[in-house]
Every structure is written in structure tokens, then in C-alpha cells.
Design brief:
378 residues; alpha/beta; eight-stranded mixed β-sheet; 18 strands; 34% helix; binds flavin-adenine dinucleotide
């Protein structure tokens, strides 16, 4: 960087009330919620990509709160209380998204969410057995008697001959993640937030009551408080945090004539997910085929996972129709020992809101509200 002018120092690089690191869903929602609490705050977001480059613009765009077999697996690993707590947060988040943004602005498609099952699979046996019990538990969250319903008859409607059973959740849908991030960006910029891209935070220290942030681009920012919204990449800045990066790979087909698939679909405890995007099939997941290799922050695609996703389409979604793939990509999720997000103060000036465990679309507005309260009260 050349020497800064006085104009640059006093505008772009002036001392901030809060600097947020990361401009994914969580960073953007956090800026919005902070400003709602105190509109006069000076807030800057620092983003190392030219656009957000983690998960928020690279996901599948499901607005979901969890499919039956995934929720049962979560209950087995982290217990009922935490599972329903996270489901409640996701459900509240879905409401907030639609309260803040018009459907057409974010490409919201209320076509419902589904979980597909193979004949006699253990996931089906358990989900069918526990369905009534799950619906009872979910009623206090969704206000619906039957959040999940068996919808096997729709398999033929969607051309899903490769499966034997279907469970529907009419409360879920899909959105366009690119439009959604753009809408959030425009909203916070309109509220006065400065978003600086191409700036990678290397380190931060507290000096004379201020947080001094140093960046790869040899810039120093001063702020009263720093909020890390760096999800899968947080270990670079907070090495002790309980986060394991998990890469998710995706591909999309060319438009398919007469495509019957409509909605967002989960399979195999959420390890596979597919949806229609107009008349194209978008599919992602299969990281359970290469757990170790996919536990990485490297944004790249691999032959093993991409072939697996293509085979899945060929075997289960389009057994007779030829198709070709137009785009392939990946993004990085943050997992850990449990799926409860980490929303906390590290000290009076350093905060973090991370580990969205692969379902940050819905969680982001709620965790942002929580961290904004914590920061405002500190
Ligand atoms: C393939 C895939 C499919 C998914 N599908 C869905 C789905 O359908 N529904 C759903 O709810 N969730 C889905 N997710 C998860 C969801 O996208 C994430 O939970 C969510 O985007 C997390 O948002 P975030 O803001 O916490 O993180 P991110 O979007 O990863 O944002 C973090 C940002 O921090 C920036 N950053 C990191 N380190 C630094 C640094 N040192 N300095 C400056 N900037 C930095 C990164 O560039 C990045 O832009 C999916 C994820 C993937 C990868």
C-alpha cells in the first residue's frame, strides 16, 4: 500500500466502533443487527475475498431446519435439548429472512423440503418409527401438529423412482444465495456500513484500550471492538476454537427438458442434498465418501466426490435421460464436536460468532441478534 492520504485516513481508515471480519451471512446479519441496536455506530466489515469467499455464496441455498434422519442423528450425538434448541434457532431464522427480504429479491422458492429414503433402509425404519414423536416435539417450535408428513405419493410426481419413501416438510424452501448475499450487502451498506474487500486479517492485539488489527495488505485498522465472523477459517485467528473445516462440493446440470423435480431434497442424514434451480438439478454433498480429504479449508473440487455426485444423478434422479454438467464448485463449512454455534465474547473487546455446522442460511439472523446483544451490553 502507498502512504495514506489524510482523506483516506479520516474516512476509510478511521477508528471504528466495531470491525467485523468476514462478510458471509453471519458478518452481514451481525452488522445489520448491531446497527438496529445503535444506528450511530461506525461499523466496517473486512473481507479477504473480492466477494465473500467461504460458504455463503457457494452453498446449495436450502432454507431448512433439519431433515428427520439428520435430526435423529443429532439427538444421538448431542442430545435432545441442544438439538431442539438449534432447530428452534433455525426455524426463527427462516422467519426473519422472509420478514426482512421480499421473496423475489432473494429468489425464495417455497416449494417445500423433503427427505428421500431407500427401501428398508435403517434411516427410513427409524424416521418412520419416530415421526409422531418428532412432530410432538416440533409442535412447540413450528406451531404445526405435523411438521413432517409422509409423502410417498409425491415420489412419482417428482420423478424420484430411485427412492421408496419421502417425508415432507412444507415449512422449508430454497433461495438464491447470490441474490441473498447481494441483498444483505446492499441493505447494510445503505445503513452506513463500510465493506472493504480484498483485505485479509492476519492478527489483532489490544493496545491502549483499542483493538489494533493488522492485515496481509500491510494495513492497520483501529477499533473499539472486533467481531470474528470467519466460520471455517476462525482457527487462523483463534487457534484454540473447536472448529473443524469441512469442504462441501456441488455441481449443477444444464437445463433438463421436462424436469419433474421441484423442491429441496435431503438424503442420507443430510450428507446428500439436491434441488431444482428452475429446470436444472443442483446437487451437493457426499463428503462421507472421503471424510479425511474433505476436512480442509482448500476451496477446490475433487474427482472422487464429483463422480459420486454425477453417479447419484444417473442412478437415482435421471436414470434414462442424458445430462451434462455446466458448473462445479466447493465451499467450506465449519463443524465441531456439536452443532450448537459458538456465539460469545472472548474478552471485553473481542467477540466471535462462528461454527454454523452446515446450516447457516437459517441460523445467521438469530446468531447475529445474539452476538449484537452481547456486544451492545459489553
Ligand atoms: C457446499 C455447501 C452447501 C451448503 N448448503 C447449505 C444450505 O443449503 N443451507 C444452509 O443453511 N447452509 C448451507 N451451507 C452452509 C452455509 O453456507 C454456511 O453455514 C454459512 O454460509 C456460513 O456463513 P458464515 O458467514 O458464517 O461463513 P462464510 O460464508 O464462510 O463467511 C466467512 C467469510 O470470512 C472471510 N474470511 C475468513 N478469514 C478471513 C480473514 N482472516 N480476513 C478477512 N476475511 C476472512 C471469508 O472469505 C468468508 O467470506 C452449505 C455450505 C457449503 C460449503
Amino acid at each position: 500500500m502507498p502512504q495514506l492520504s489524510i482523506w483516506e485516513k479520516e474516512s476509510f481508515f478511521s477508528t471504528q466502533d466495531v470491525i467485523i471480519v468476514g462478510s458471509g451471512f453471519v458478518g452481514l446479519w451481525s452488522a445489520l443487527k448491531l446497527l438496529e441496536k445503535n444506528p450511530s455506530q461506525k461499523i466496517t466489515i473486512l473481507e479477504r475475498g473480492i466477494i465473500p469467499t467461504g460458504a455463503s455464496t457457494r452453498n446449495a441455498g436450502f432454507s431448512c431446519f433439519g431433515s428427520p434422519s439428520e435430526l435423529l442423528q443429532d439427538i444421538a450425538t448431542m442430545g435432545e435439548e441442544k438439538t431442539w434448541q438449534v432447530v428452534n434457532m433455525r426455524y426463527q431464522g427462516l422467519h426473519q429472512i422472509r420478514k426482512y427480504f421480499r421473496d423475489d429479491l432473494i429468489g425464495y422458492d417455497p416449494s417445500g423440503g423433503y427427505e428421500c429414503f431407500r427401501k428398508d433402509s435403517a434411516d427410513w425404519e427409524l424416521s418412520a418409527e419416530k415421526l409422531e414423536w418428532m412432530n410432538e416435539r416440533l409442535q412447540s417450535i413450528t406451531n404445526l401438529k405435523n411438521t413432517f408428513t409422509i409423502a410417498d405419493k409425491k415420489l412419482a410426481v417428482f420423478g424420484l423412482e430411485g427412492f421408496a419413501h419421502l417425508i415432507e416438510s412444507e415449512l422449508e424452501g430454497g433461495l438464491h444465495s447470490g441474490k441473498f448475499v447481494q441483498a444483505l450487502l446492499q441493505k447494510v451498506q445503505g445503513m452506513g456500513v463500510q465493506v472493504l474487500t480484498g483485505i485479509e486479517v492476519n492478527d489483532f492485539t489490544i493496545e491502549n484500550g483499542m483493538v489494533s488489527i493488522s492485515c496481509k495488505q500491510e494495513l492497520i485498522f483501529l477499533t473499539k471492538k472486533i467481531l470474528l465472523c470467519t466460520n471455517a477459517f476462525t482457527k487462523d485467528l483463534l487457534p484454540e476454537i473447536d472448529i473443524v473445516p469441512n469442504r462441501g462440493q456441488v455441481l449443477i446440470t444444464e437445463p433438463i427438458q421436462g424436469l419433474k423435480l421441484k423442491g429441496t431434497f435431503h438424503f442420507d442424514q443430510g450428507y446428500y442434498y439436491f434441488r431444482n434451480l428452475d429446470n436444472r438439478i443442483l446437487i451437493g454433498g457426499a463428503r462421507n465418501k472421503a471424510f479425511a480429504a474433505e476436512s480442509t479449508t482448500e476451496i477446490a473440487t475433487t474427482t472422487i466426490i464429483q463422480n459420486e455426485l454425477e453417479d447419484f444423478i444417473r442412478q437415482r434422479l435421471l436414470p434414462v435421460q442424458p445430462f451434462s454438467i455446466t458448473d462445479r464448485w466447493s465451499g467450506i463449512m465449519a463443524m465441531g464436536t456439536e452443532k450448537v454455534p459458538i456465539v460469545k465474547a472472548i474478552n471485553e473487546q473481542v467477540f466471535c460468532c462462528v461454527r454454523m455446522s452446515g446450516m447457516g442460511v437459517a441460523l445467521a439472523p438469530v446468531v447475529a441478534e445474539q452476538i449484537a446483544s452481547i456486544i451492545t451490553q459489553s
